[in-house]
Amino acid sequence: MDILVVGSVAFDSVETPFGKADEVLGGSATYFSTSASYFAKVCIVAVVGEDFPDEHVEMLNSKDIDTRGLQRVPGKTFRWKGRYEYDLNQAHTLDTQLNVFSSFDPTIPEDYKDAEIVFLANIDPELQMKVLDQVKNPRIVACDTMNFWIEGKKDALKKLLKRVEILVINEGEAREFAEEPNLVKAAAMILGCGPKTLIVKRGEYGALMFDGKSVFSAPAYPLEDIFDPTGAGDSFAGGFIGHLAASGDSSEANIRKAIIYGSVMASFNVEAFSLERLNSLDKDKIDARYSEFQCLTHFEGI
Amino acid sequence: MDILVVGSVAFDSVETPFGKADEVLGGSATYFSTSASYFAKVCIVAVVGEDFPDEHVEMLNSKDIDTRGLQRVPGKTFRWKGRYEYDLNQAHTLDTQLNVFSSFDPTIPEDYKDAEIVFLANIDPELQMKVLDQVKNPRIVACDTMNFWIEGKKDALKKLLKRVEILVINEGEAREFAEEPNLVKAAAMILGCGPKTLIVKRGEYGALMFDGKSVFSAPAYPLEDIFDPTGAGDSFAGGFIGHLAASGDSSEANIRKAIIYGSVMASFNVEAFSLERLNSLDKDKIDARYSEFQCLTHFEGI
Prior knowledge:
- Two copies of one chain form a homodimer.
- Chain A is an alpha/beta fold.
- Chain A has one domain: Ribokinase (UDP-N-acetylmuramoyl-L-alanine:D-glutamate ligase).
- In chain A, 36% of the residues lie in helices and 23% in strands.
- Chain A has ten helices and 13 strands.
- The first copy, chain A, has helices at residues 28-36, 54-62, 125-134, 147-152, 154-161, 171-178, 183-191, 232-247, 252-269, 283-297; strands at residues 3-6, 10-16, 19-26, 42-48, 70-72, 79-84, 91-97, 117-120, 140-143, 166-170, 197-201, 207-210, 215-218.
- In chain A, the strands form two sheets. A nine-stranded mixed sheet of chain A has the order 5-4-1-8-9-10-11-12-13, with helices on both faces.
- In chain A, strand 2 and strand 3 (19-26) form a beta hairpin.
- In chain A, helix 6 (171-178) packs across helix 7 (183-191).
- Chain A is globular.
- The termini of chain A are far apart.
């Protein structure tokens, strides 16, 4: 199955205790599609400005990512500037320049209106809905969001969630959306809003999956060198949705496997700035780390 | 194998968002030994004051816990007062009264000097050493500590660690002891100080085991109702050491199982104030939750 993703393509400037990167390629749709490209074909819907270099588009195309839905319009590309302290779970936003993103009107290439899997990366829920309205009959709709939209556009988000099968959000956002500190209770409340499956991302603590019947706890891979957590959540979503698309199987058992593939991709992503590490992978490296996740979590029965 | 534990027996006053408890039975040795009593015989070395009621001693004895090493001396029992906010991972100490603990001189009952497993719960590392000096030839020495001793008695702690096989500490304490924010690097540094195995407790995020060759990640059990996290770490240690003692097997594979038993006991403990829930268990309930940990973490191979 092919994947349709809508999200941001951006220039990121990032400082961590281990170094800094200026105006490097970033954005949720970029991380997502690069990660997912190792599993399935992805069509990206996003907007960039006149300052966006062809080489970045060529890089995406070299991964067999369909960029016909990447609009290039007058103005400057979206920019994000952030800093991480030693607690790499917490991004501190220093500056956000929406630029061409402020008037983004997503348009889906005609032959992608039949997409069976849609990932709505973290953008305005009204834009996410606009994308969904153009897709004919998707089998799986997954989406991400953030505190900014939970606080500012909760009604639009709630309307969207009725049409979403899988919600993938951070732990703090799950608690904030549900207005409930206990994660198990928060998950039950969120599942009541529409999604069949909730995946809670917990940074270096891994991820939890709730579907109303069972709970799955996935660890994060313990890394000696974490350079830059930017894009970890979108790389996770890329591996997760990528595996679901490649297998065409959305059973609970396969969702667990997909979560591990997502965790694998996130673990690679944080090893370098921007898409440096994600770009240097192949299926063997990905599968080798998948096996390491098995070693990491295995214990014998009673 | 029998277990020898030295630690505190205390009266705790605890406030959480879900209720409060005044002057209830607590202390690291109490939680540890109650938890471990479901697995093996435990001998407790601690001190209480004249105000300590017989019924608490009888409760411990009813669990087949050997209390001959529980000294009763003139003065008042150790008291701790703390509060938890909605973030139940973080205890805020409101008051500590050492009382009889300030002049505690631990003495091991003669027939426990042959103990094969010793757990040095979180007390002054000089007292922990004093206990260790009285034990003849233990097969496994495990210990816990806290930021207070890391900051105030690091040299004594380092000296102790040379004689410790298994160190069980909190995540923040591991980072603080190693003066290293990255947990994988911190673990390598700590293993270099003596312990063969390091277990890092992460509260609601579970536990990590490092032994220099492999890493094991155990989840915490996602609970809908967490009433009181007091004693969770000591209940964890009780289940962990208890399983090692009962099986007489300290292989890596069995240490993983022991960590899950520790996680099971911690998950029960937080469901009620004081030892209420820990006291109401049996081996079937414990094994049933062990199986739930398997469901929680299972995923298929590639």
